[in-house]
Amino acid sequence: MSIKVFLADDHAIVLEGLVNVLLKQVDIAVVGTAPNGRAAVSGVRETQPDVVVLDISMPELDGIEAARQILEHKPGTAVVILSMHAGAQHIFHALEAGARGYILKESAAREIIEAVRTVHLGRRYLGARVAEVIADGLGDRSGASPLQSLSKREREIIKLVTDGHSSVEIGVKLNLSPKTVDSYRSRLMQKLHISDIPALVKFAIQHGLTSLD
Fold this sequence. Notes:
The chain has helices at residues 12-23, 37-47, 63-73, 88-96, 108-120, 128-137, 152-162, 167-174, 178-192, 197-206; strands at residues 3-8, 28-34, 51-55, 78-83, 101-104, 125-126. The chain is of the alpha/beta class. It has a six-stranded parallel β-sheet, sandwiched between helices.
């Protein structure tokens, strides 16, 4: 049987290129695509793929949070994170979210096939450069990630706040009142010992919740 793959990336050219690469493989079938994280979560629930490839920086919902939600619904799904970021924080954040693979966009066309086949077998797949970053960074990690103190909802609100959405807009997206959104934001900033939005944006970029692109 073919390995069923779902792909999500907000860059249409990248998405089309990955689809074309995978469609040439006799043992792989692309069962769906999505342009953002929310659509990916919904699409994965509908198509029930074996492997999901998620861009880390997407609108609506980033790849890390999309991975969390997908794995909560179907823990057996193998998730591969696709990213232009090679920083240790992004990589460890993805692995902590449950991703079984992490590849960089610069080498995606070359590595995507091997990554899909490897994670489908229950093993991890880390691109060559990613593996080097992890090896170099293992000795530098100290203590638990501050993200571990945040709930799924709080991480989602950080993403939306740092993407420039107002409390009213966030409330509409998450079906919350603006006052509740403000309460979430205040509480998470206290947890992180952050006093203003610029510092929150810096934190989100450093920990892979949003990006400069």
